[in-house]
Each structure stands twice: as C-alpha cells, then as structure tokens.
Amino acid sequence: MCLAIPGKVLEIYDENGIKMGRIDYAGAINHACLEYIPEIEVGQYCIVHAGFAINMLNEEEAQAALVELQRLSDIIAAEDDHT
User: Fold this and answer.
1) Domain count, the chain
2) CA-closest candidate to residue 44, choices 73, 27, 21
3) Cβ–Cβ contacts within 10 Å for residue 50, how many?
4) What span, in angstroms and rounded, lies between the C-alpha atoms of 44 and 68?
5) Across-strand partners of 33?
6) Does residue 1 form part of some domain?
7) CB 38 within 8 A of CB 29
8) 47, 51, 57, 60: which could join 4 in a potential S-S bond, CB 3.0 to 4.6 Å?
9) Residue 25 lies in a domain
C-alpha cells in the first residue's frame, strides 16, 4: 500500500529536458517530475507517487485530504499514548 500526500507546486523548471517542480507538502519541500501532468501550473496541487506527479487536485480536494491525513495522524498519536 502507498500513501500520496497532496502538494502545492511552488516552482516549475526544466531539468535535462524534463518538466520538474518544487512541491510543498504541508511545509516539507521536495521535487517531483511533472511530465505526466504537463498542464499543471504554479499554485496548483498534485498527488505525487515515487517522485512523479500523477494527478492534479483542486485546492478544495487537496485541503480535504490534508484534513483527513491530520485526523489520521492524531488518531495514531493518541493510540501510541495509550500503549
């Protein structure tokens, strides 16, 4: 199973002829290949798997996913506190 976290595209650049992006995952910045979604623009959200952006999301979808991921994280932390 894999988990993909929505990220916001901060910058788009070319690296050796490949469309790449600098992505903000709720404060953690990383880079990803954007070739599979060439229509994406700075400020939009995407889902990245194994270093490749595979789908675009609108801001509402991205924020809803981030809320659920935080909720899951809170549940796991609470369970850890009880063990």
Assistant:
1) 1
2) 21
3) 9
4) 19
5) 20, 52
6) no
7) no
8) 47
9) yes
Provide the residue range defining the domain that includes 15: 6-81
User: What confidence tens digit (pLDDT) does each residue in 27-51 have?
Assistant: 999 999 999 999 999 999 999 988 9
User: Hey, what are 76's tokens?
Assistant: 């796991």
Residues paired with residue 60 on neighbouring β-strands, in sequence order = none
Question: Which phi and psi angles does 63 have, rounded to 5°?
Answer: -65, -40
**Beta-carbon neighbour count of residue 53 at 10 Å?**
26
Q: Are 19 and 31 in contact (CB under 8 A)?
A: no
Separation in Å, CA 17 to CA 9, 34, 35, 41, 67: 19, 12, 10, 17, 36
**CA-closest candidate to residue 73, choices 11, 65, 17:** 65
pTM score: 0.82
CA 30/CA 45 separation, integer angstroms? 14
